[in-house]
Specification:
mainly alpha; Serine Threonine Protein Phosphatase 5, Tetratricopeptide repeat; about 0% strand
Amino acid sequence: MVLSIPQKQNLFYLIFVILISIGSIFLYRTTQQEWINYRGAETKYDNKDYEGAIDLYKKSLEAGIPFSKVAVNLANSYVTTGNFKEAIVIYKDYLLDHPEDTNVRLDLARALSYIGNFEESEIEYKKTLEDHHENH
């Protein structure tokens, strides 16, 4: 079967469009993977699949999602799965940049009490009360 010049041109254009489409999909998947992981983590978190959320939150961090966007739900997931020490590290790191976040400070105090670190837990509760008293 011999193709005419217009048929060859049309075939060339079709192949070109297919290759561009495949390339675009590949490029999107590799450049936006951090957001795909992050959205997947959020879905798993909302569905109470905390182990799965932890895995995807960690992958999204490795891929470049800002720590502040992931920290609280990642730490909460660790608490829910009983990994309090990991949660405490994350809460503390987050609070270095967001010391006014009383909800996270309360979460930190609670996690500290879960592992029996009552003195440090009490300090965090007092900071929360002081912040609340200053703001009201």
